[in-house]
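Notes continue from the previous slide.

Worked example: a multi-chain complex. Inputs as given:
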Amino acid sequence: MSELIMSVIEVKNLKKYFGSTKAVDGVSFSVEKGEIFGFLGPNGAGKTTAIRCMMDFIRPDSGRISILGKDAQSQSVALKAKIGYLVSGIYLNDYWTGLDHIKFVEQIRGKSKIVRDLVKEFSYNPRIKVRSLSTGNKQKLGLILALMNEPEILILDEPTAGLDPILQNSVYRITRDFQKKGCTVFMSSHNLPEVEKICDRVAIIKDGKMADVEKISNLKDKKMHNVAVYFNGPVDADKFKLKGVEIVEQMPDGVNFKVKGDINPIFDELAKHSVKNVEISGATLEEIFLEFYQKEK
Amino acid sequence: MFAIFWRTVRDRKISLIIYSILGILLLAMYLSFFPAIQEQAQSLQELMKSYPESFLKAFGMEDMIFNNLESYLSTEQFSFMWPLLMILLLVSFSGSAIAREIERGTAEILLALPVSRLKIFFAKYFAGFFNLIVFVLASIPSTILLAKLYGVEYKSEGYIIMSLLGFMFALATYSFSMLMSVLFSEKGKVYFASAGLIVIMYVLNIISSLKDSVSDLKYFSFFYYFNAGDALVRNHIDHFAYWIFLGVAVLSTVLAAVWFSRRDIAV
């Protein structure tokens, strides 16, 4: 019981099946007070299903979800008074304005002290009907609705989807500000750099199953890059057989590498050669899963 | 709960106003024809005698007296046009109240608030109930005012009884439709299931009047219990109609509330 109280969110062996589809299959994790906890996984991994179970929109087939020491199903109404929630792919009433949404939420949750600041922060015009808003502006409104009553817990499903980089940074800053006030943040994402940037810990989910729960510092070791190097002359690819470097493809004038972890050793080696061009891209989450989690299992 | 109720009423106000005005305009149209109908009453009555009895019965015209306003309106307005407007208004309301919210994902805005599902359901339900009351009041008792306006003789008691019968019929239809809205997650399916069942009941009522061998089918039709002529002309409602309409309304509402509280809600 004491463990339940210490963890703000405690999910134990959560299972939710839709017919033969195992959307969430035995997921367990806990979120401590005041941390920003990432819930990372590719699209269709089961993130939203798990969040919907936490919000009591759908009922688990088995397992237990406890939030602030209360059962997320039987005491969901009391819990929702303390939770700010942002739905993935924000669904709003098209014929309402932003102000209609804000007033509606205020009628139920009470007057917000910070809504004006949030509107200003996001440069959002609340007098426009939702049907005329861009995806980014809808996302801003969704965030305002989630944050405006200064909840104890924030559950954000893909909070930066559709936002430009400047606004993404605003979201990160506001999220950290809430964290400083003692708010616990649970956010899902399929964007590894985003999770690295903002979260303290991360749960990784794939095909409905938990792959791992990591500290962000550990996750950084699992970084992976695709590096394509084009040389001015012939090169012996064997010289690049370094720790964490895999040769994926040899081309007439270059080599494609997959680099796990630290990227510096390959640059040290490249410095010894005449390089025409280098293309570097971060590995996708799918590739990271394949490399670090599927293989381990 | 009131915030959800009031917001739903506001969101649906245009359709309520349009349907209520349509109901009044139809009444006004039939009333404007009535003096001319009265003048031709005898020849029309003779014409009616040439129709097969079962046909007249099937369409509620068996007791039609053309020089009596209540008899005329019970056939022209309240046996077909009024139920049609009522069904369109309430089925479209119930489809949008729950199923469309689920279909569009806006249900999550409501579900994320600290309000129980039962309260959400009943806030929506009573918003529809409010629509129902306004429509019934606008489209039935208003006959008295319109009749005065056109200088036509009327018996006010019949319209009070008719309002009660109309209210019960509408309540049963609306509650059943709300149950469909809770069962399905797409408004199209709600319209299909609700309207489909109502059309089947209408057809059953007609078939049961045409053939004696299947006359018992009428008991499965709301339209048998919704006897506008009986209510308007004879100021009478069959006791069984109370039980059927209220029974369907209560059962559908309870089932809908329980199911909405228990079901998974996701886009």
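Summary box: Chain B touches chain A through 20 residues (CB under 8 Å). Chain B has 13 helices and no strands.
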